[in-house]
Design a protein that fits this description.
This protein has helices spanning about 5-10, 25-30, 40-45, 55-65, 95-100, 120-135, 155-165, 180-185, 200-215, 225, 230-245, 250-260, and strands spanning about 20-25, 50-55, 70-75, 75-80, 90, 105-110, 140-145, 170-175, 190-195, 220. By secondary structure, it is α/β, with parallel strands linked by helices.
């Protein structure tokens, strides 16, 4: 691995080998998602806890302060919406020149394996890898399932992650599932967990994140389960402790309760 690739990966994956990404790219197919109507206000108190920001070029330019941010993972696929016929019908939306111009540390693209657009999205990934590797920019493949959440089982996700890695993704983002270690063991590149739909309780989030890390994931790419929580800063602080301090679910819940009671102000040192 050349110096540039190592350098960019080190920006998004911390020295302990773990990472906490904040996705705020939901608007590219959902529009003004709840609690993300004003992204600048949403991310401001949360940035201290995250390691990187997963965002589209439009929101990056419009609301992210270039002098006070975290490394950028740029969302570069899209072309569909929640009101369209099929979320899987995506294309690459952003050129490699734009990625370089925006000084992104990595790029992210969705693949929809098993959909009518499987080949199209896998070739999107392949083309992106071909271009990004020329400039030592890591590609994160997102194993998307569209509206068909029942697909999230170990056999399907293991298949998706391995294919994405085979096509050259440097990181794969996928959903947690039962027996998650089988997904990780079958994928030769680092695996990051997605948040998926908002969970009912904080403990439910802490449990799947902790379990996934114990089973080999390097971190999480979690948005709605943080910034749609009534106490988003407390949530971010607790999750960061699981990821970078290896605290238990109970300890994370204690951190959450304490942070919530005192206003959840950022208290860690980078």
């Amino acid at each position: 691995m050349d110096w540039g690739m190592q350098n960019r990966l080190s920006q998004v994956i911390k020295p302990d080998g773990h990472c906490f990404f904040m996705p705020i790219d939901h608007g590219y197919f959902q529009g003004p998602t709840r609690c993300l109507e004003k992204p600048a206000e949403t991310i401001k108190p949360l940035l201290p806890f995250y390691d990187a920001l997963f965002v589209t070029r439009g929101v990056l330019r419009a609301v992210v302060d270039p002098a006070n941010t975290k490394p950028i993972i740029l969302r570069v696929s899209g072309g569909t919406s929640m009101v369209g016929k099929d979320l899987a019908n995506e294309e690459i939306t952003t050129s490699i020149e734009e990625v370089i111009r925006l000084n992104a540390s990595a790029v992210g693209i969705s693949v929809f394996i098993g959909s009518d657009y499987e080949k199209q999205t896998l070739l999107n990934l392949s083309r992106l890898v071909n271009e990004a590797e020329k400039y030592a920019i890591p590609v994160m493949a997102v194993t998307a399932v569209g509206k068909e959440l029942e697909k999230r089982d170990v056999r399907y996700l293991g298949l998706c992650c391995r294919i994405a890695a085979e096509l050259g993704a440097r990181i794969v983002k996928t959903y947690w599932c039962k027996d998650f270690d089988k997904v990780v063991k079958g994928c030769p590149v680092p695996v990051v967990m997605a948040g998926g739909p908002k969970c009912k309780t904080e403990q439910e989030v802490f449990e799947f994140v902790y379990d996934g890390l114990q089973r080999g994931a390097i971190g999480i790419n979690l948005g709605r389960n943080v910034w749609q929580n009534p106490y988003p800063v407390a949530m971010a602080k607790s999750l960061r402790a699981i990821i970078h301090e290896n605290v238990t679910v109970k300890q994370a819940q204690d951190i959450f309760n304490e942070a919530k009671s005192i206003g959840a102000k950022p208290q860690f040192k980078e």
